[in-house]
């Protein structure tokens, strides 16, 4: 990460020059044109921008992007891989326990392909919107807004509120990740320290972590965290290798595990796998910051290569982890490692350090959305002080939630089902329908329209069922 702006772009899809930050009227007047000059005319000009004139058809957004430090194809692939190797992959053995061994393998491939496809249609739809609006980049929330404006009348009325909805899901998801991280770090540290000192509760360990979490979230320039982030990524890869060593020791036969799980528990698997696989905010931001964004898609593009590697790694971790630990597979496979072995303890401490550092990166996203989009323009005096108040508040909210619900596996499933069913599946399908609507370009027999309606239904079904089952299980876990 060369600077805070670049780090911001790599972590989330909220562009620092979002139209909503320039002009908060419910029109398209805040769009920056290709030359970087604000268009402050009325809605009639916005209508002209939306019309597919010959100039708009010739406009290539990729050629007008001006990134200070664009990433190469390989760098983007590395960012994509390291952005997906966190607590999610450590939860895959527990996910396979909920789905069954055979169903877990097949369903992970299907969900991975589905997530990849939805990312493809989102990127393509954003590209078409950029051509119409003659802008080089649109953020995810603004893409939703301007797509709905030209979509069916039944949804166009909602366009002014769409950015807030997308931001809400994004904030909820990112703060959910932070809650998961707090529980993960505290539990791993507890399992190690309990072997040497008087045992303390998980809540006490979280309380000890609170001040360091607040302080690390006070870092406004993520360039300062870049060296630590590199160390965290190295630790993660080494730790995963050490975990696999434990998994392959005295591996039980495959026949000792269930091939099929229950339908009810499959919703927990679905939420966990979505949480692990789907990183729509990071992926869209990476595409926006590429030197050659045209190489992001395609059969052998960066996205397909990266997602293929990720799906294979997740299947391997889930498959062998469930065979090894069976019904005892915990919300993080590190919890299943021996508590009294030095090597296992070192793995837990390594991952605790890596995830603690990553907390600052994940918390950066909701802080930026809340502060830059909704608070900064409303505060006139002592802006720096109030920004630190915002950062403190975000940390405290994640801390309170983690204290209240210290159930790692259920937390992961809840936020995966609640947020990523919408952000990663339903919303991209809605955007594509609205982008294709003006030209009625749905192909023969309206196949594109039917396909997207099915995706929306599937995403909403996963959201409702997965969220409901996760909340019920969280409540039951306290009884």
UniProtKB/TrEMBL annotation:
GO terms for molecular function: L-amino acid transmembrane transporter activity. Pfam families: Aa_trans. The keyword Transferase does not apply. It is a multi-pass membrane protein. InterPro entries: AA_transpt_TM (IPR013057). Residues 69-471 form the Amino acid transporter transmembrane domain. The chain crosses the membrane at residues 101-123, 161-184, 196-219, 231-248, 268-286, 298-323, 343-365, 385-405, 411-437, 449-471. It is found in: Membrane. The keyword Cytoplasm does not apply. Residues 1-22 are annotated as: Disordered. This is Proton-coupled amino acid transporter-like protein CG1139. It comes from Temnothorax curvispinosus. The lineage of its organism: Eukaryota, Metazoa, Ecdysozoa, Arthropoda, Hexapoda.
